Amino acid sequence: IQALQKAYDELCQKEGVTALPYFLIKYHDNSVVVSLLKKWDAFFQDQGGKVTVGVYDPCNLSHYPGWPLRNFLILAAHKWGSILQSVEVLCFRDRTMQGVRDITHSIVFEIKLPERALGPDCPKAVGWEKNQKGGMGPRMVNLSECMDPKRLAESSVDLNLKLMCWRLVPTLDLENIVSAKCLLLGAGTLGCSVARTLMGWGVRKITFVDNAKISYSNPVRQPLYEFEDCLSGGKPKALAAADRLQKIFPGVSAEGYNMSIPMPGHPVNFSEVTMAQARKDVAKLEELIEAHDVVFLLMDTRESRWLPAVIAASKRKLVINAALGFDTFVVMRHGLKKPKHQEAGGVCFNNASGSSDLLGSSLFSNIPGYKLGCYFCNDVVAPGDSTRDRTLDQQCTVSRPGLAMIAGALAVELMVSVLQHPEGGYAVASSSDDRMNEPPTSLGLVPHQIRGFLSRFDNVLPVSLAFDKCTACSTKV
């Protein structure tokens, strides 16, 4: 039995296949020789009397062969019936159970070939069904959906989301969420929290932008990194985060770009090289924002958010901004400007009628999305270098450890609520006064800002108007 199994495996390996449906067998004193069915004449040239043929048998019955044997028997009767009276058949049953391979339950029997003349043409094989093209052929079954671990992971992730639709929120538009292409500017504490929550919602396209490397203090607060990522100077955050997302869920398309974002108050005109690099970074940033649907601003400093806010406003992209203090945070969506051909019928920020319209909107708190302010609309000074003349401990974000996870989760949930609203980014902003009113979406309110105070475990939902002279989102800029 072992010699037969070894000879069969060697022939399969030689032919580059995993199994042979039919094969020829010759027994010697201490060995077994097998060959292909097409080599019948040469293989049995010196063989007198008994002829043994192996058939790869899918049947599990202990006393009966499987149906594939029928095709071989009619072929044997047609080609060799005149010279053979009988043929010995080995129903080769190759099974693996609990990691142990076994062929001992194979069966052997002798079949007498029929004594009748067949026509000159070889009879057609039986067992074929019509395929998708209507022709007779083998039926193929794609088992990748239930066998491939990556496909299983995808279906399991999708099932968790679909359960929300089936049981709790029938009107939830999952496709609108899953298909959203998200750009995360910043792969630190906020970026890691946002990325994990996006994957929880089934978002498949996530791109990171960051210029920092992983330090020893990062892994405890930033869940996409490990201690090994800090060694040898640290891996680039954006690349390591994208790689980790692929390992967590292979179905996600994650990319990372190790690049800097030019900032007001941080000169780049030291040399031609730095100027050229800054131009290249701006061009790449503009390209990335153009290619994505939602832009998350998750950086450390205020000024680093300015250029992405300007570009996103000009390209009318949904911007979700999250920023941290020690025990406070703000999560907000930027106002989404109307297309140019609609601006004439909208609000004009530069005349008196526009001012009264804005005042009315402010009083009634029904501010539409195109009138909402951005992160810089309430500034009294232009953005500049916020790290100048500060000690090292003041240059990094010092916040309570749980704050980033709260803000990151709220940032993603705000995006989801905006995408579920029929008007998307143009949705009227919900305020704290609307908490007792009928929610505008199946998921609840769609606020403009969420300002949280961890010391009081409290959130408020303020709404602010766009400033016509804002340094980031105004029409002139």
From TrEMBL:
Keywords: Coiled coil
Residue runs in coiled coils: 268-295
Boundaries of every THIF-type NAD/FAD binding fold domain copy: 162-424
One GO cellular component, as annotated: phagophore assembly site
Location of the Ubiquitin-like modifier-activating enzyme Atg7 N-terminal domain: 2-147
GO biological process: autophagosome assembly; autophagy of mitochondrion; cellular response to nitrogen starvation; piecemeal microautophagy of the nucleus; protein modification by small protein conjugation
Organism domain of life: Eukaryota
Pfam families, per the entry: ATG7_N (PF16420), ThiF (PF00899)
Gene Ontology molecular functions: Atg12 activating enzyme activity; Atg8 activating enzyme activity
Record-linked PANTHER family: UBIQUITIN-ACTIVATING ENZYME E1, UBIQUITIN-LIKE MODIFIER-ACTIVATING ENZYME ATG7
Record-given protein name: Ubiquitin-like modifier-activating enzyme ATG7
Organism, as annotated: Pterocles gutturalis
Source lineage: Eukaryota, Metazoa, Chordata, Craniata, Vertebrata
